[in-house]
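--- STAGE predict ---
source: upstream dedup step, 1 unique chain passed
mode: sequence only
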Amino acid sequence: MPLRFNADQLDQAAAQFVEWHNEATSTVAFTGAGISTESGIPDFRSPGGVWAKNRTVYFDEFIASASARHEYWRQKAEAHRDFIAASPNITHLTLSRWEQTKRLRGVITQNIDGLHQLAGSQQVLELHGTARQIACLNCSWRDVADKWVQQFVELNKVPDCPQCGGKLKHATVSFGQALPEDVVEAAIEWSQACQLFLALGSSLVVQPAAGLPRIARDGGARLVIVNRDATPLDSIARMVVNAPLGAFFEAVERAETKSA
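--- STAGE serialize ---
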């Protein structure tokens, strides 16, 4: 049975986590929407999120239909406002600090907002891609998203690839589109090799990403889950903390100071 803590028990949870973190020679963090919502980015699944307000544009529809591509770009332009207004929070910054001090191998993320990189993290595996770049589906051309989103907003027209004239899409994984195989393979390898696996702000229901904590646990790692709500993997974790991420990491900072 896992150790369980709530928002009123964060100092106890943090003290135990810091002890385990100090013992581990390889720690991996896995992050979901809960880390981004604390930076002001709505969860896609939330009542005010993108999926609640808009229909899903599947990848094959994007390829086949000009109107679907326009709807896709309209939705992405709307979401882009939230991304560019957001800043990394204490969780992003702590993970970056741990990487810089060799206490974290890297971050595996389901998020597409690029906030880990803005916080300074360099070892980031983006399972679902990044909304901060635009990619051509026909050639290798890529560019930062800002100016292309702005062009779409101003002209109300989906841009074409300036290199080959092909279809441009945000460098994210859409429904019906395969995850990048090399990223998935690296995420599995990290999970198998780590001694401590920290799942942060993820509902742990979206596959195949949600299988990574189980892979880590099966490989002998201590699994720590920090999420506002219960997850399907709580029963296999060594520790479950049901509390806001920011509050947990504030407690971790206090615990780190005491253990130094």
